[in-house]
Amino acid sequence: MALSTIAIIILVVTMILVVTDKIPLAATSMLAAIAMSVTGVQPLAKAYAYFGNTTIVFCAASMIVCNGLFQTGAIQKIANLLFGNLAKSSERGVVAAFSLFTGLITGFTTNTAIAATMVPVARSIAESSEGKVKAKNLLMPVGLMSTIGSPLTLSGAAAVAAGAAMVIEAGTPMTYFEMAPIALALIIAGTVYFATIGYNLMIKAFDFEDPVIESEADKGVAIPKWKTTISLISFCFMIFGFITGIWNVAVCSIISVLILWLTGAVSVKESLKSCDWNVIIVMAGVTSMANGLNVSGAGKVIANFTINLFGGPSASVFVIMIVLGLISWLLSQFMSNTAANSIVVPIAISMALALNVNLLYFCVPVIVGTAIAVTTPLASPTTVIVMQGGFRFKDFVKIGIPLSAICLLIMFVMTQFMYKPF
């Protein structure tokens, strides 16, 4: 049997396992990597080689640094400082401020962490507003904007990092702020949406009482100021290194981790526990699988078959770009963003290589498309976190569909202007 056929069979089985969610995604991804190697599609060492990949090392280290901001209370203090005096302001203004802050900060931390942090802040504002501000009207923007803003940097979400790792491994470099212009446009559009149309929709749709939100924040212990300061210094050094390019992103992020560990600002044991190793395993596994598709020629077979569906060599790359973006967006409404990327990004890479198209022209809409996961509570961990606001499935649909349409239109237009296909 041809190696390309074996690789395609492995891909199909992997897709079935991802969609059915019968086994953990980390196990599925490593199963695919091992299968690609033991069947001879790729060398045995490639099954685990990507754990040392620059992008994956950077992702793991940046998780520790960003989680350090939460463990030392830095993000909580910033949020309270910015929003502590907004309780007596107009609710619409508070909603807009929440939307903008959440969208921007999530690109530099992790979307799930910022969503969890903003829940008690929303509760505090609602309690001190004398009924002027409802927590439910703050939590919906938090849940949706914390995923929309994640492509601002490559460390904004696991799905973004995983997609970028596959693109970089395919030979196309991506900077830390590669998708920032598109993400900024989406954040601004989302903020305007929640200050206008979205706010009006929430007032009409949320026909239930404001819930009582429980928070663990009140049980916290005082954190020394020096730890907060060190965590901010570590984070700023990492970002400075990314921007200046003094070293590669992995080295910059590792040094930042060492600053936290050597000063004792963050416990080594606690910081390692806070790192989402499931994400690291998934990234390494799907990158290995993508390599198997490439070296076996399976990617080319899949790409040629798909291209023929669009008219063969004369196929419109613009249409293909839109279809890939829409597929990734649709999948991410019902499965994790990372899982959706693990399915669509390898196909997008193969199609780009077959048509000799700029990989970013096809892959950026896929990665950003999975971040616009806002129409169901299943779409993202951030939407699950804010479910304590009392939301129902239909609430996400009512608020998320118009927002998705706006964001997708912006994404496609900006991709067309930012990335030349040839």
Describe this structure in words.
This protein has 422 residues and is mainly α. The chain contains 20 helices and no strands. The longest helix has 26 residues. It is globular, with a radius of gyration of 21 Å. About 1% of the residues have low confidence.
**Structural class, please?**
mainly alpha
Largest sheet: none
> Could you name the ranges where pLDDT drops below 50 across 5 or more consecutive residues?
215-219
Q: What is the oligomeric state here?
A: single chain
- Give the helix proportion (percent range): over 70%
Helix tally equals: 20
Q: What separation lies between the terminal Cα atoms?
A: 35 Å
From N to C, what is the helix and strand string? HHHHHHHHHHHHHHHHHHHH
The total count of strands amounts to 0
Mean pLDDT: 86
Q: Using only CA atoms, what is the Rg?
A: 21 Å
Shape: globular
Percentage of residues in DSSP E strands: under 5%
Structure, briefly:
Helices cover 70% and strands 0% of the residues.
List the helices and strands and how they pair.
Elements: H1 3-20, H2 25-38, H3 54-71, H4 74-83, H5 91-106, H6 111-128, H7 135-148, H8 158-169, H9 180-195, H10 197-205, H11 225-244, H12 249-263, H13 268-274, H14 277-296, H15 298-309, H16 317-332, H17 337-354, H18 359-371, H19 381-385, H20 393-418
Task: Kindly list the characteristics that best describe this protein.
mainly alpha; globular
